[in-house]
Amino acid sequence: MQKFIYSIILFINSIFVINAQHNTDAERIIKNLTESFRAQAVRSEFILKISEKNGVNSQQISGTIVLNANRFFLKTDELTVWFDGKTQWAYLENSDEVNITEPTAEELAAINPVTIISAFKSVSRIQFSKLKSQTNHIIELIPTNKKADFSKVEIQLNKTSGNLHAIKIEYKNGLKNDLTFRNYQKNVAVNPRMFIFDKAKYKGAVMNDLR
To answer: Which residues span the domain enclosing 38?
Structure first.
């Protein structure tokens, strides 16, 4: 009987060790991803789907984004956004106006993958999902604080290339953000001025300084 109990204890301990190793691997993958954004510029097409509880009032936005560290340039059919790490310029094509702001991390987390991952990983337990994929790592960020406003962040990366494939955020109020990437390019050459609004190119635009 004593040997049987000892065997059970060893088995339970081995499960905890395996889970710890898996979590460490997941954390390493996320760490490598965030470090890659700092080391190189990335360009990708994206589709952002936003839906409220039960899929009500859903909307979809598509465009192109260029990322480098905490800076980004984003363009859709209706909107162009420049962010230099502090100041954001959002040009609205229909009204020919530019809104100038200094967005918070929460505001940036709506679209910027760097901010999304940085904002959520520090308050989450990082683990592999029970869902399996032949091509992608599927990693979950689960909040460690029960009072957090989100229930889960799912990050998918290609197992071979390490390219970011998708980020899905589920909030406790039922809101879901699904951000999918395609034609993902790493080591893109960019001019730092790409992330700063050039007033000379939009001479007739109305400037709204909301800082």
So the answer is: 2-209
